[in-house]
Amino acid sequence: MLENPPPILRKIYLAGGFKSNWQAQVAARLAGSFALLDPSSHNIQDPAEYTRWDLDAIRESDMVLANMEASNPGGYSLALEVGFAKALGKRIFMVDQVADPLVRRYFEMVRQCSECVFVTLGDALDHLLTID
């Protein structure tokens, strides 16, 4: 009897800071539904090497989950990752937890690149589990 092959998982790149370990929450919720491309797990220290890894992972991904936490010092790398993903035609889902109106004003372009913007990571994960 032939067994069903395992499903091919969609690949999602995780863009965002490394301080809060939010990636573990994503892994726990999306396990079995998505293959995670997580730059917090590669431990590359050289800027040229980790930039190459990150951009290659975005190229390989089907979509990007961009998590702009309030604790993110500026979101500069996240903005680059979202812009690069947008240029490649990737689906982008963003969590925007920044409350400061001045920062929000200057971050609007990044939000506009996103298919959906969420206030909480949990809401974004709930949504991702429902998309085709």
Could you explain the architecture of this structure?
The chain has 132 residues and is an alpha/beta fold. The protein is 42% helix and 20% strand. The protein is built from five helices and five strands, in the order E-H-E-H-E-H-E-H-E-H. A five-stranded parallel beta sheet has the order 2-1-3-4-5, sandwiched between helices. Helix 3 (76-87) links the parallel strand 3 and strand 4 (91-96). The radius of gyration is 15 Å and the shape is globular.
The CATH level-2 architecture is identified as 3-Layer(aba) Sandwich
| Basic shape | globular
The CATH topology comes to: Rossmann fold
Count of alpha and pi helical runs: 5
User: Percent of residues in helical segments?
Assistant: 40-55%
Largest sheet entry: 5 strands, parallel
Given the helix and strand composition, which structural class is it?
A: alpha/beta
Order of helices and strands: EHEHEHEHEH
Strand content: 15-25%
What count of domains describes the coordinates?
Answer: 1
Radius of gyration: 15 Å
